[in-house]
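Hi everyone, sorry if this is the wrong subforum. Our group has a chain we'd like a structural model of before ordering constructs, and none of us has done structure prediction before. Sequence below.
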Amino acid sequence: MSDVLRRWFGLEGRTVLLTGGTGGIGTAMSRAFAGAGARLVFSGDDEATGSLLARALGDAGHEVLFHPCDVADRGTLDGLLEATCRRFGPPAILVCNAGIAGPHGTMGSAREAEWASLLRINLDHPLHLANRVAPLMAQERGGSIVLTASLAGLRGNKAVGLYGIAKAGLIQLARNLAVEWGPAGVRANALAPGLVETGWAGAILADAQARERRLSLTPLRRVGTPEEIAAAALFLAGPGAGFITGHCLVADGGTLISDGN
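Answer:
Right subforum, don't worry. Here is the predicted structure as tokens:
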């Protein structure tokens, strides 16, 4: 890595805490942050997958810890943060990527328990961790928080409306954190992916008509990759985005700005 790239995009010596680090986008993020030189702690609810990924990254010479975590439980989240601090010290970077799709269909058709679970996982877990981690970052005079939102949080959707509400909340959470903690040098941003090649998007990608319709509304005429989303998160987290805060970076191939023709 050249001196310029190392200065603006390297994360050597920085501790990164990543939730949801074992899924499609999450695995790409784990690899990206470890590859950038960070001391990485990542969580996931699949212990076997997480352990295998941690072993592979460790064998490649990276400093990595996998910590199983149920992000719906605040006590478990506290344990994740404590494990991070014990192993590598307080995180300089927090990436909240864990989330669920939640119920499909009209908003009124969802059960109360489904809505509550969606909020706990998609919105409360980032809020809780950010509130715990930001003061630690402030003590070090700086840090970066990245929240994985979604294109669904930026426009109406009749199929995953509740999911969109929770993701819109994440975008606002990033703004509020930016205002609250900016004077202490802590940045906060959201990242809104569009359609990406993951298991979550499998139903759309497997349906030829649905795929064609979606791509026709996307100027780049293709689906994104997990690695591209991970690269966007890496940028927001690192020094290259040092003057960016309270922003929502949309990585959707242009779907949001399409004219719909």
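For your construct planning: Residues 3-198+226-251 form a domain with the Rossmann fold fold (CATH 3.40.50.720). The longest strand covers residues 186-193.
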